[in-house]
Amino acid sequence: MLSKVVFLVVCASVNCFPRLTSLQPRFSFYTRSDWHAQPATDLTPLSTPVPYVIIHHTYKPDACTSHQECITAMQSMQRYHMESLDWGDIGYNFCIGNSGDIYEGRGWERKGIHAGKANDVSIGICLIGDWRVDQPPQEMLEATKALIQMGVDKGIISPDYKLVGHNQVMATQCPGTALFDIISKWDHFSNKFSVA
Ligand SMILES: [Zn+2]
């Protein structure tokens, strides 16, 4: 009995149970080690709960349909963000592939570099691919919603969060017109971004 209690206490403190419970079985969640991320050199913590979720597309790399393609995309983005832009890690908090597989970037607890002044107050989610004309697959969109809900459940994203596109924060085409049209119909979408 004692060992059972100890196990539960230990588990509660280190989160042994799969953090994916709310996502499974529909979406797979891959950690940094799963995609062989390089160690981050920027470990700036994110102040939570955050009031915003920012949606991105990659434009490049292209959409990934297989796990291996998505791993390659994650690695290439991290390499570019670290080596060419000197960002200390991949910029996004999370990225999502065509099949709805979710890839951990900076994760829930570290501040991303993806949307300028919004970095301090948001989780940045990138839907891998060019979504200016083509619409993302339904699985990818549903995984995005599930990931946001997971962040709310974990207390990282404020329950009354606002959802905005990168283009509402900075002058950019990101997340692409087709994707932006979709997210603009989602719950929590906000017409404006403002930092207090
Ligand atoms: Zn963007």
Description:
By secondary structure, this protein is of the alpha/beta class. Helix content is about 30%, strand content about 15%. It is built from 4 helices and 6 strands. Strands 1-4-3-5-2-6 form a 6-stranded mixed beta sheet, sandwiched between helices. A hairpin with a 5-residue loop joins strand 3 (about 95) and strand 4. The structure holds zinc ion. The site of zinc ion has 5 residues, from loops.
In helices, the fraction of residues equals: 25-40%
Low-confidence spans? 1-18
Number of helices: 4
Q: Which ligands occur here?
A: zinc ion
Main pleated-sheet profile: 6 strands, mixed
Instruction: State the end-to-end CA separation.
Output: 51 Å
What is the topology, as strand order, of the major beta sheet?
1-4-3-5-2-6
In sequence order, what are the helices and strands, one letter per element? HEEHEEEHEH
GO molecular function, one term: zinc ion binding
Protein name: Peptidoglycan-recognition protein
Organism: Pieris brassicae
Family: Belongs to the N-acetylmuramoyl-L-alanine amidase 2 family.
